[in-house]
Amino acid sequence: MAGGPVTITSPQQAVATALARSPILRSADAARQAVRGDALQARVRPNPEASIGFENFGGVGGTGSYRGFQALETGIGLSQRIEIGGQRAARIAAAARNGDVATLEFEGARLDLARDVVTALAEAEASSRLVAVEQERARLAAETLRVARARVDAGREPLLQVQRAEVVRASAEIAAERASREAEATLASLAVLIGASRVGMAPRQPWFEDVGPALRPPMPANPQARLTENPDFARLGVTVEQQRANLALQRANAVPDVTLQGSVRRFQEGRDTAFVLGASIPLPIYDRNQGGIARAQAELLRAEAEVERGRLSLAASLIAAEERTALAWRTVQTLRRDAVPAAEQAARAASGGFAEGKFSFLEVLDAQRALSDARAQLIEAYRDFHARRAAVDRLRGQEAGGPSNGGGR
């Protein structure tokens, strides 16, 4: 069941809250606990079997000395199956490898959740800021409409300009309403990840504009060396060991078990007691677990092939993610250093000049649109940077949402 409302103040707090209460992680942990149960069961030896039997029981149809209970023989015995092919040790080894894989899968799910929370949080904060951009666009459109009406009333502009301004204002208000609804949707998605009934954002989120210093070349240069903490990377090697353990188990299962039997027999006639010992073993004439062994060998070959492909794929993904993060960082720097200040200056000049008749309505409209677009692009660039840095952290096996240093960490 989802928890109560949560107010988000930072990515670190959001990730910590999600790791503590998200049903996604609880589900992954339950899967890990299930494998631990398998490991516990693997250590269990076969149960002994108790038996009781009656022989020479004549009942009402018996004849001669076998009438009634005269020749009754009663036997009480125990039998125990003995695993002589090393099955128990092979089961324990296979369960241990399964446990290793499950642990790495849990760590992967944990890092996935942290990455997804940071990405969703960046999306929610960006959507919130885009609402402010669209509201400012609507405010500027309303102000332009007011000035246009004044100029039309003064006979300095045709009525067509007012009609154009009305269309622009209406479109801006619709865009603001759409942005507001989108912001609510992103908060709902974030709440699902965190495991809360509702999520709110603190008024200030300074982390959103923190992209750190200039990117540094990644160290070490070998991408696979930067993947050593990635549980997916480690799981590739452990999967091979898992399949080797499974092959050993299948070969052990091909060895038939010996069943030892012992019983006490009581003879009704003469009141004598005797002990009976015995042993049985299946003859592996037809079933030698050929299919299980063949399948395990094929699974081992597949796992060995997947190791090389998987490692190369993860390394390529890391290189691409690091390049995209570096590009996102440069995009943020260009927009906030050059594009947005220039658009703000142009919009101020156009708005002031329009009131004085220095600029046309279309020039003012273009300047306002360029300013709103530049601000929106900067917000989207921030969002893109945080999402891509979270992806890099995930690939490096680090928890997303840690202290910022520009993605070059």
Write structural notes for this entry.
With 409 residues, the protein is of the alpha+beta class. It has a single domain, classed as Outer membrane efflux proteins (OEP) (Up-down Bundle). It is 63% helix and 10% strand. It has seven helices and six strands. The strands form two sheets. Strands 2-3-5-6 form a four-stranded antiparallel β-sheet, with no helix packed on it. Helix 3 runs antiparallel to helix 4 (159-194). The longest helix has 67 residues, at 87-153. The chain is elongated. Residues 404-409 have low confidence and may be disordered.
Concise overview:
Helix content is 63%, strand content 10%.
Kindly report how far apart the N and C termini lie.
37 Å
Coarse morphology: elongated
Q: What CATH architecture do you see?
A: Up-down Bundle
The CATH superfamily is identified as: Outer membrane efflux proteins (OEP)
Within the CATH hierarchy, at the fold level, what is the topology?
Outer membrane efflux proteins (OEP)
Count of extended strands: 6
**Helix-strand topology string:** EHHEEHHEHEEHH
Q: Outline the biggest β-sheet.
A: 4 strands, antiparallel
- DSSP helix fraction: 55-70%
Q: Work out the helix count.
A: 7
What share of residues are in beta strands? 5-15%
Oligomeric organization of the protein chains:
single chain
Supply the CATH class: Mainly Alpha
How are strands sequenced across the largest beta sheet?
Answer: 2-3-5-6
The structural class is alpha+beta
